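Budget justification aside, the reviewers requested a transparent look at the raw inputs and outputs of the sequence design task funded under Objective 1. We therefore reproduce one unedited record. The lines immediately below are the structure tokens for a 383-residue chain.
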């Protein structure tokens, strides 16, 4: 089937140039980068070259980049590493709409005796900054972990302001930037967070590799012990993945100035067309004074069930989702939409449509033809 792929917040296609960069390290350049001999040394040079590319994309020093297996590990490493090194405070502060990589860990830590404060969002998906300010206390808060942009609605949080607040109170701040990196310009120095997570497969790199920025001077203890990654993450490096990530990061930053505007125009055209075709449809998140990622829209179609919508679209070659891929199969409305107080009838009929720099005009035209047709059919069947 010829697919129209609108699920890029779940994963992206790998850029052919990233594949090309990886191939030698899947075949003839297979040495261990920790080996003393030159055969391994050439591989070590490739890892360090990729580290430099990721660092350049983030605006930091290569020594501040730790390679991981992806966003979930980066998030877990950040939270656990900060907690292990922190000598005061028992509270953990997160938002009510975090990705499951942070949310599930926070739930586990809460059951283990930690106090977790979940900062609410409003109906547009904006973080309640007053509630955050009230929650963060110098002697009680061990860390703050809040995302840069929401993976379901695309709503962007004021990460630099959060970092400033945390810095004023002497509390470390971890920012999950998995969804924003490659879609928005992201300089970690300007952002101000102590740790920042990214994942390669969200910006046209390979799956199974990510990175954690650890600001120099941040008190942090490793989760996986070993000599690799300057003793911050043990285990033989995933060299092909790291090389592919480095190339994907370079390509993402190289194209961002042009592609951000083009992708936003496609998203806006898709959104406007769907709303015009169905006056009862509603966009979840964003609006006046509430910025979103340029590639993301979350639209509800009251009177439909998300699962039935996704199946109907899939049968017609359109790939979408109802929220995070990690939560697929759940019949409950998204925790993000519940936190935004989206009415149940709307939340249960939500679609997340996410574009990439490989999305075309033809993809949008097909979506605008297919989605209203599926909605109409399901309403007629009352599914």
């Amino acid at each position: 089937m010829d697919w129209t792929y609108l699920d890029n917040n779940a994963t992206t296609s790998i850029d052919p140039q990233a594949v090309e960069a990886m191939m030698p390290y899947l075949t003839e350049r297979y040495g261990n980068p920790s080996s003393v001999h030159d055969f391994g040394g050439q591989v070590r040079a490739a890892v360090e070259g990729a580290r430099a590319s990721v660092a350049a994309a983030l605006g930091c020093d290569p020594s501040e980049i730790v390679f991981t297996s992806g966003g979930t590990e980066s998030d877990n490493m950040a939270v656990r590493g900060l907690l292990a090194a922190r000598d005061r405070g028992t509270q953990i502060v997160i938002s009510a709409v975090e990705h499951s990589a942070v949310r599930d860990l926070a739930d586990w830590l809460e059951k283990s005796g930690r106090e977790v404060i979940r900062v609410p969002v409003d109906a547009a998906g904006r973080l309640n900054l007053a509630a955050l300010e009230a929650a963060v206390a110098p002697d009680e808060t061990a860390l703050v972990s809040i995302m840069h942009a929401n993976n379901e609605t695309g709503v962007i949080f004021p990460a630099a302001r959060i970092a400033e607040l945390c810095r004023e109170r002497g509390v470390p701040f971890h920012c999950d930037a998995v969804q924003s990196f490659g879609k928005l310009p992201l300089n970690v120095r300007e952002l101000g967070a102590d740790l920042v997570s990214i994942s390669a497969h969200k910006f046209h790199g390979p799956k199974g590799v990510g990175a954690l920025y650890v600001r120099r001077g941040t008190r942090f203890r490793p989760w996986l012990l070993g000599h690799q990654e300057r003793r911050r993450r043990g285990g033989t490096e995933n060299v092909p993945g790291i090389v592919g990530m480095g190339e994907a990061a370079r390509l993402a930053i190289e194209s961002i100035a042009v592609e951000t505007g083009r992708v936003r125009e496609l998203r806006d055209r898709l959104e406007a067309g769907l709303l015009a075709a169905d006056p009862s449809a509603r966009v979840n998140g964003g609006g006046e004074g509430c910025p979103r990622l340029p590639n993301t829209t979350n639209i509800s179609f009251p009177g439909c069930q998300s699962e039935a919508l996704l199946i109907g679209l899939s049968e017609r070659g359109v790939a979408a989702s109802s929220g995070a891929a990690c939560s697929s199969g759940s019949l409950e409305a998204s925790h993000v939409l519940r936190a935004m107080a989206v009415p149940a009838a709307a939340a249960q009929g939500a679609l997340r449509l996410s574009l990439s720099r490989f999305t075309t005009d033809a993809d949008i035209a097909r979506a605008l033809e297919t989605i209203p047709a599926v909605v109409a059919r399901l309403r007629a069947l009352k599914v």
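Residues 4 and 115 are 44 Å apart (CA to CA). The two ends are 25 Å apart (CA to CA). Computational costs for records of this kind are itemized in the attached budget.
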